[in-house]
Amino acid sequence: MSRIRTEEEKQVARRMTREKQKEDWLQQQEEKRSGHERYMKEAVKQAKKAAALGEVPIGCVIVQEGKIIGRGYNRRNTDKSTLAHAEIAAIRRASRAVGDWRLEDCALYVTLEPCQMCAGAIIQARIPEVFIGCMNPKAGCAGSVYNLLEEPAFNHQAHVFRGLLEEECSQLMKGFFKDLRLRTGRESQEMAKTERRRETAKTEGRQETES
Ligand SMILES: [Zn+2]
Q1: Are 160 and 118 in contact, with CB atoms under 8 Å apart?
Q2: Strand ranges (DSSP E) for 45-91?
Q3: What pTM, to 2 d.p., does this model score?
Q4: pLDDT tens digits, residue range 110-129?
Q5: Distance, CA 115 to ligand 1 centroid (Å)?
Q6: Distance, CA of 46 to CA of 89 (rounded, Å)
Q7: How far apart are CA 129 and CA 60, in angstroms?
Q8: How far is the CA of 162 from the centre of ligand 1 (A)?
Q9: How far is the centre of ligand 1, averaged over its atoms, from the C-alpha of 182 (Å)?
Q10: Cα(111)–Cα(134) distance, rounded to whole angstroms?
């Protein structure tokens, strides 16, 4: 015998359906992991372009029907623009390629968990599938700080696959920041040396005038 369900019961049922769909989707993608890794490798290539410019190495590609239609890498310092994130560049190119702001049958691959701006753009572009290399605990908006991609209160959500080529993507970041620390360490050493030389020169100059 069926009875009228309360609103709370309906909500629980909806949440369970969503969780089940999520699990099924993840299972399906797991079976196609090597195919997905191929695209993530392309995103890694993009990230290396950013690294070559001294930028934080983040890369992104967008795929439609097995074809890469948009590529992008972080150029924030180079372009002096907050908007120059890898995902935004890739979305812009993909939209140009399909002639539409909607990217409803596309998948996005990004080496690092998207920030709030990029996660917002992904939802705005209606991209249904997002593959992430490594997570960004301090700023990520696909589950770390916040989960904007799977927020049920929005009209659109994306499926999210995390940890695709995770080791490679996280090594990319670690390597970059290690180099940066070494570089800034060397620079401050150089500055200290110059400062010491200047001080010595000043003292010697004083001694000369005194004698
Ligand atoms: Zn971003």
Answers
A1: no
A2: 59-64, 67-73
A3: 0.86
A4: 999 999 999 999 999 999 99
A5: 4
A6: 11
A7: 13
A8: 16
A9: 26
A10: 6
